[in-house]
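hey can u run this one w/ zinc ion bound, need the structure tokens asap thx
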Amino acid sequence: MGALLKKYPIFFIFVGSIKFTNMKKQILTSIMLACPLFFFAQKNEQMAQKIMDEVYKNSQIEQLAHELMDDIGPRLVGTPQMKKAHDWAVAKYTSWGIPAENQKYGEWKAWERGITHIDMLSPRVQTLMGTQLAWSPGTSSKGVTAEVIVIPTVSDSIAFQKWLPSVKGKIVMIGMLQPTGRPDHDWKEWATTASFDKMKTEREAQKQAWEANLKKTGYTKRTLPEALEKNGAVAIVDSYWSNGFGAQKVFGAKTKKVPTVDMHLEDYSMLYRMVEHGDKPIIKIVAESKDLGIAPTFNTIAQIKGSEFPNDYVLLSAHFDSWDGGTGATDNGTGTVLMMEVMRVLKKLYPNPKRTIIVGHWGSEEQGLNGSRAFVVDHPEIVQNIQVAFNQDNGTGRIQSINGSGFINAYDYLSRWLKAVPDTIQKVDTYFPGEPGRGGTDYASFIAAGVPSFNLNSLSWSYGNYTWHTNLDTYDKIVFDDMKNNVVLTAILAYMASEDNEKASRERMLLPVDPKTGERQTWPEIKQPERKGGF
Ligand SMILES: [Zn+2]
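ok here u go:
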């Protein structure tokens, strides 16, 4: 009763105005039994309890995470693993009695990662840590062996053009030498304040000098690799340190013919210093990969049909694809497995929802929300009838906040739905009216279409430095207790949104004036997906 009192204060204010004589207590009991609001509250509480029991006693998330991250692996758009993951999800839903399908929306360059192996051969032998970038051209199994050079300091683009032919037959390092391999949190813990400040000042100066020199070459980080390969470089080595011990970000290659690899900070900076000292290091790069032509791109869609309003939808949203330096565990394996487990639990406990509960596992979010943008454009009949969309895409942590996305009445329904969540679940802070998201993850595709669409923001667990798009984004970083918290929360939100007699208001806030331009901001517009990409 205590929990009920906390969650339904309006009802109990009404009850509280009655004087408690014995006879009146009986009347009160009859009122309570007859009151639909009371029943509604009791029904919600029972459902929340059932969900808790299922999630904590019969969790499938460990198994799902193992199959997805360890067995299938990373899910880069255009790779056979991405297709395998889509088929796996359809098979899982089918085994739970939930209709599911892969909906093709476009095409992408088809590519498959192979073995990367990098060794220093001279002046001494050492195996180096690194991996080829996504969609990188490959080498034969014999690899390429060459001397390593770095980008010189130049006076202007003419000087750089004069230098360019000297890259012929060489492996070129294109990233800046990091002054330290220790993350800032480590410096903060151990250094004197003076030496930490000195390091930061020097690092900033070095960064600015590096960028100024790059500008003088006449190229950018994006255009430089192609200029190097055109002038005969045999491979490109970069190092995108993620400011954490052992953490490297691994994105896509910009070369068309020769391989591009990312090398760990430790080995990269060693080679760089050797070049600067005239040691003329020679390395061998084996980077096997296959260009497989063209691959179709998909969204996986599954749904539990509504019994009262089958053409009204509660949308659960999480992108399915990942970068492939790790296995895409926290970006977005955890969001994926979360939504799958929510669907499994709801199908078991709430098989006849009022509204249709639909889940979208989007393809190619990482290249510009392509899957969800395609869904918005291709399915107006669904999109205009979405009651609410919940998206999750920032890691394994407990969901801790929801921003009202600029829907002016979101405070009303979201607050009501959140009241059904038991106290043992992480409290969710809400920000109303918030502001409409313009990108970053798939909720933005739906906001642009006017759908009340909310990101379920989770606690960081060092996401930005350690797991987001890094080699360390792997199963071992998943915090299953936090994920179970999120399954309970999301399942209850979906249930409440489905049961609500009212349709969630889509009324938008008047956006503020942008202080920079002096003009009123406008609502984000629907954007077209990239339906043929990667070439
Ligand atoms: Zn993501």
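The mean pLDDT is 94. anyway lmk if its weird
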